[in-house]
Amino acid sequence: MKLELNIQPLESWIQAKSEPLLIAGPCSAETEEQLVATAHLLAQTGKVTALRAGIWKPRTRPGEFEGIGSIGLEWLKRAKEETGLPTAVEVANAKHVEEALKAGVDILWVGARSTVNPFTVQEIADALKGVDVPVMVKNPVNPDLSLWIGALERINGAGITKLVAIHRGFSSHEKSAFRNEPMWDLAINLKTHAPNLPIICDPSHICGNRELLGYVAQKALDLDMQGLMIESHIDPSVAWTDAKQQVTPAVLVEIIDRLTLRKPELQGAAKDVLAELRTQIDKLDDVVFQKMAERMKIVEKIGNYKKENDITILQVNRWDEILNKRVAYAKALNLSPEFAEKLLELIHSESIRKQTEIMNKGQENQPQEKLTHA
Ligand code: PEP
Ligand code: MN
């Protein structure tokens, strides 16, 4: 499914100060001094294209700092006047949109906790009707691509064509090194659905710490994302929100300078080398699929045999045996056991689906089952 979004290319409305495009600033505007001083240091780096700051903070628990509110818009105005940096704030309702626009904020973004709620997104979209302002939409907190797409469609439907998606990771119950799991495949999926939609990455909220920022930023660039949003505070140790993940403007520069910018388009010899290697991959993929088809033919035979002889589809011992043997074999071939296990599970669930189909052939009202491991 391709998304029908009417979008202007990023370069047509924002000129990066340097590569990659970088939006930086504190998680929250705390005081006028903190914001303006941070803005000056960021502007002096020559690498920052726009200044971000949270004015209204959506906090998970009440009682935490919920943002400085409208007064912060005045501070942003001053920061912009003194540094020339365009400004960006998060909006979570119609009132925020109106106030931010009135204060001359240049870019609005929809936060992860708003993207999850279609009512909220629609309220923001309605408030944006007839306005020509860039809007960035963060992915929803939960790993649901449709919600992200839906929010982009609602904002685009309001006539916003300077539209950008921000990948900030997804919450997960699994313990991990990240505050929010990157789940890169979801961002890649969005790109596949909407090839003309610019996507930038927010390593700060993915990492939740300073140490991994460079790693995530590099990975985002290698996946051809078009920019970064990174939280930067004049003194992260005393930040009122997200203290663990913010960096000083000086550290931000170090992180950016260490990034390698790679080109999506290859020229000359490199192009030929890559074309040749891709041909080899295509041939191997064909073989993998031929073998898969052969495997499924045998699965069908087994299914028919089991049906004729009233044998259950699933025999746990057999499955354990396949899994253990193949995972060990995969390891010997230098394939990761996790990959081997996932691949086998996918193949196995398709085999079971096929056999179930055979078992139930001729019976009415069978629901169409989906692959469980897809
Ligand atoms: C933020 O950018 O400070 C923020 C609240 O982010 P998110 O919506 O991604 O949690
Ligand atoms: Mn934050």
Short description:
By secondary structure, this protein is an alpha/beta fold. The protein is built from 13 helices and 8 strands.
Written account of the structure:
This protein has 374 residues and is an alpha/beta fold. It has 2 domains: 10-257, TIM Barrel (Alpha-Beta Barrel); 268-359, Chorismate Mutase Domain, subunit A. The chain has 13 helices and 8 strands. Strands 7-6-5-4-3-2-1-8 form an 8-stranded parallel beta sheet. Strand 2 (50-52), helix 2 (71-83) and strand 3 (87-90) form a beta-alpha-beta unit. The protein starts with 20 loop residues before the first strand and ends in a 15-residue tail after the last helix. The mean pLDDT is 94. Manganese (II) ion is lined by residues 27, 231, 241-242. Phosphoenolpyruvate binds at residues 27, 54, 111-113, 138, 168, 205. Residues 268-359 form the Chorismate mutase domain.
> Largest beta sheet, briefly?
8 strands, parallel
The gyration radius over C-alpha positions equals 25 Å
- The pLDDT mean sits at 94
Annotation, overall tally of beta strands: 8
Unreliable spans are none
Total number of distinct structural domains: 2
Per the CATH scheme, the topology name of the largest domain is TIM Barrel
Domain Chorismate mutase: 268-359
GO molecular function, one term: chorismate mutase activity
Pfam families: CM_2, DAHP_synth_1
EC number: 5.4.99.5
